[in-house]
Amino acid sequence: MQTRIVQISDTHLSALGAKPAHQQQIRPEEKLRMVFDDIAQTRVRPDLIVLSGDLIHEGGVDDYAHLRQLLAAEKQLLGAPIRVILGNHDRTAAFYRGFLDIFAQKRPYDQHVTLNDWDIYLLDTKCGDIEPGYLTEAQLAWLQAELAHATHPGIIFMHHPLAGPALQHMRYSVLQNGEDLLRVIDHSSICAIFSGHTHFASSSVINGMLNVVADSTAYHIDCSNHHVHRIYDGTAYNVITLNGTSIGVEQRPLYLGKEVINTIQVPNTDFVDPQVLFAAMAEQEERRETVK
After folding, report:
1. Which residues contact 84 (CB under 8 A, 6 or more apart)?
2. pLDDT (0 to 100) of residue 292
């Protein structure tokens, strides 16, 4: 049985009253609608749509409520379920209240979905509100327990990618404990990992595992200069086809601007000091309060 999944990443929808991040010339919500229109017009007919993090650029409760309405309408039009995961620019408490309508802030937002003959694991790699990602021991234990009972091949969606061969200059930004994740999924049913975050597409094989990083729906980042990243308006998404145990990925670029709209200075490209990660996680734990 063939299964088709659309991956949309890094939508960065603008918060109410805020200007688009990085001086985008086309509003990110318009770009997201371009993606959904393309899915409909080209008759992709996905079995599942996954938005892999950075849904709203530092938004509030009302912004996530608006996103819920937008996605509900698209779900009805396309006839496909839609799942979302969190990225570093999302705000967990506002997401739980506005998108899930849950007052008590829960974290992490990990999910397991069975789709046809596949197990889909959606991991919350958000590390407080800082750039890099991290998976806690509790999350890894949860995943290991889920995999112990797996009867189907599986794939993982998460926001932060592993530090694969194409991302050695992005180690400051990727999943910081990727080796821990690889140990958990070694000799398991997991066949591939799909992520986003870097705003440029790449793929690699790590320990025999396919890793695919999606470009952004909001803006493309050129990181060829490892210390000065150039930002362009850009829109792309991926169509993932699962057939038996085979996996195919088609990148669909819809738009790429010609002008640099902003730059990012990156002094240090190495992994982040673990103490910074632990401090960010501790701060996140302190925020586990009821959202008013």
Report:
1. 50, 51, 53, 55, 71, 99
2. 46
